[in-house]
Write a structure and sequence with these properties.
By secondary structure, this protein is mostly helical. Helices cover 86% and strands 0% of the residues. It contains two helices and no strands.
Length: 103
Amino acid sequence: MTKKEREEIKREIAYRDVMTRKLIKISKTLFFLFLLFAAIAIWGFTGLHDNFLSMAEGIRNVLKWIGLVGAVITGLLTVMFYLSYHNSKKYVFALIDKVQNKK
C-alpha cells in the first residue's frame, strides 16, 4: 500500500467517523421523539382523565392517532438509523485495521 493510498484511507476514516457521530445523535433524537409520541398515543387510547389536561374527546381522538402514527414512524426510523450507525462503525473499524495491518 502506497503512502498516497494510506493518506486517502485516513481521510476517509476521519470523514466516516464524523458521519458516524452524526448518525448516533440523530438516532438519540429520534428515540426521544418515539417516546414522546408513544406517551401521547398511550394517553389518548387509555382515556385517562385528570384535572391538569382536560380536553374535548375530539381533540383527544386526533392526538391519539397522531401519536400512534408518529410513534410508528419514529420507531422505524430509530431502528434504521441505529442499524446504519452500527454498520458504519464496523466499516470504520475495518478501514482502521486495513491501514494498521498494511504498514
